[in-house]
Design a protein that fits this description.
The chain is mainly alpha-helical and 439 residues long. Strands 8-7-11 form a 3-stranded mixed beta sheet, with helices on one face. A two-stranded antiparallel sheet has the order 1-2. Strands 3-4 form a two-stranded antiparallel ribbon. The chain is built from 15 helices and 11 strands. The longest helix has 31 residues.
Length: 439
């Protein structure tokens, strides 16, 4: 009950002297900082998306376009080839002075010219990125067509792109021809089928191509007109989220400490440095300061999935899981000696430095308390088959302390495990295992 009272920002009671209100200034301050931090992050995210969407132009170039159109119009030149006069004539500005109406027409023209240039560059790059012949040319022997294509791409793609600067310029995923899909399918299964099985499969493929396959191909083309990638949502839903096999080993990813270089053997210090560096990388992703991956430093790859590297969890379901992403998370969860710890990583919107994080990790490492009943083996549920984990979640984690604790874990930026035993990298063992697998 004491913890519950501490979590209340204010309380009041009615006495003989009237209404008495008791404020907890520390909790109110925490709520205020949390709210302002959320608003600032929300505005920053939209601003970074706007800047990335305008690439290769910058927001300040709008003022240059407007200023140039005003200067040229004042010296007697018409950069719009009559469009400014058209705007001045057709836009209802008769209640303004003629000179002010002309200036507003120049401002509107500058804005339209600025947007037009952005769209021209974006769709020009989208058309150029459709060219694929460069991938099949041998190194050192570049055709004239490819050289011209490379020059045009370099001219339009700009410099110092942000993480998502090219998202609007990437071409839609093309839909392969039905006969090509069936041909590659038969080529893939041929080594695992005998002649009789393969012959039967060829007949089924021919029937599919002449029957329902044509209708499905039309549906696929229709979807490709509306979606930049017609595969993504289906793959995520039917291949990834509906998979019932355990996530551990089969699907999830993880990061380990450096193998060959250990600047310190103090576990808390190494954990603090890793967490600090990872959170700085997360901040770079949020501000889109990381450059996009590019093939041959020329063709960008899609950066959409970077958004879900952090603050994302996969919620188990009876038939299908669903992915949940939070735009921000200010804490991580640490597991050590069978216990879960919530570790705040920010103070007044500022990331804790490695020394401050090391102090917190030392407190976790020095904690001698015993885990709660069942806490030590709780993580094994996430390694179970997905339906079993969903049933256990509905039964034991749908309310109360269990639900709140699980929410804290799932809303963390990421998860950290502090091992009790030291594991050393031995290249001799790796070589011997490779030889055993070879033989």
């Amino acid at each position: 009950m004491a913890e519950a009272h501490q979590a209340v920002a204010f309380s009041f009671q009615i006495t003989h002297n009237g209404l008495e209100v008791d404020f907890d200034h520390e909790v109110l301050s925490s709520i205020w900082h949390s709210g302002t931090h959320s608003i600032i992050k929300h505005c920053q995210r939209h601003w970074h998306d706007l800047v990335a969407g305008l690439y290769p132009l910058q927001p300040y170039t709008l003022a240059l376009f407007i200023f140039a159109s005003l200067i040229l119009k004042n010296v007697g030149l018409d950069p719009s080839f009559g469009l400014i006069a058209f705007i001045d004539h057709h836009v209802p500005l008769e209640y303004l002075a003629p000179s002010l109406a002309l200036y507003l027409s120049c401002v509107l023209y500058g804005f339209l010219a600025w947007i037009g240039l952005i769209l021209f560059i974006r769709y020009s790059l989208k058309i150029l990125f459709l060219y694929k012949a460069w991938m099949y040319e041998p190194r050192g022997k570049i055709s004239v067509t490819t050289r011209i294509w490379m020059a045009l791409v370099q001219l339009l793609k700009g410099h110092n792109p942000r993480l998502c600067s090219y998202q609007g310029s990437l071409p839609n995923l093309p839909v392969p021809k039905l006969e090509d899909t069936l041909r590659r399918f038969l080529l893939t299964v041929r080594p695992i089928l005998n002649d009789e099985q393969y012959s039967e499969l060829e007949k089924l493929a021919a029937e599919f191509q002449q029957g329902v396959g044509k209708r499905m191909q039309r549906y696929l083309r229709l979807k490709s007109w509306w979606a930049t990638n017609y595969v993504t949502d289906w793959w995520e839903e039917y291949v990834y989220l509906r998979g019932r096999i355990p996530v551990m080993v089969n699907s999830n990813f993880y990061v380990m400490d450096a193998i060959h270089a250990k600047p310190t053997h103090i576990q808390a210090a190494r954990a603090a440095n890793c967490v600090h560096s990872i959170l700085k990388f997360r901040a770079c992703l949020e501000r889109q300061e990381c450059p996009p991956l590019q093939l041959q430093n020329l063709v960008p790859l899609c950066s959409a999935q970077y958004e879900r590297v952090f603050n994302t969890t996969r919620i188990p379901g009876l038939e299908t899981d669903h992915s949940r992403h939070w735009h921000d998370s200010s804490h991580i969860v640490v597991y050590h000696r069978g216990k879960f710890f919530k570790l705040p990583c920010y103070r007044k919107r500022q990331l804790l430095n490695p020394a401050e994080l090391e102090v917190l990790f030392n407190r976790i490492l020095d904690d001698e308390s015993e885990p709660y009943v069942g806490e030590k083996h709780l993580a094994a549920l996430t390694a179970a088959e997905r339906t079993s984990w969903a049933q256990a979640r509905q039964t034991y984690f749908h309310k109360g302390v269990n639900k709140n604790s699980l929410d804290t874990i799932e809303k963390a930026a990421f998860f950290v495990a502090l091992d009790e035993e030291e594991y050393c990298y031995n290249p001799v063992c790796i070589i011997s295992m490779t030889q055993v697998q070879h033989y």
